[in-house]
User: What shape does this take?
Amino acid sequence: MFSLTKLKVIPFAISVILIAAIISFSNPYQIYEAITRIDKVYIAAAMGLSVMNIFLRVLKWRVILEGVGFFELFPVQMFGMTLSNFTPGKIAEPAKSVILRIKKGIPVSVSLPTVIWERINDIVSTLILAFVAMQAMSIKSDLLLLGIFSMSAFTALIILLIFTMHSKKFG
Assistant: This one.
């Protein structure tokens, strides 16, 4: 029969095949050409903003979760963000709370609300950016009313979800 080692080779082989397929379909030369034409200042600015974002998220967690050091939280934050980027709607980000529970003994009920508020903050900022974009796009068209309606419906749904989480009677 198959040994455990042979079973581990199968997912690895599938991963290598998928990566090779993605690379071959993505036209690496065209990507290289695009990267060489990009203004390096914009890349540096984007990387700087990303690093600052991660740094501030870890600092926020350090303030909320007293007694946990920055360098203990940093890998957990990085893992959680990486994992959540590979799942639809970032639904795997609460894994950070589970990892903190395993590594530091911090109850999930203490760290999970910070993850939920991060998602709510992301939604609010996305709504603001969407509103600005819809208004800019609708200067010469009738898309503004449709955009306002759809964002209002989405905002109402988010408010409903927040009330559901906050109130046991309402939920």
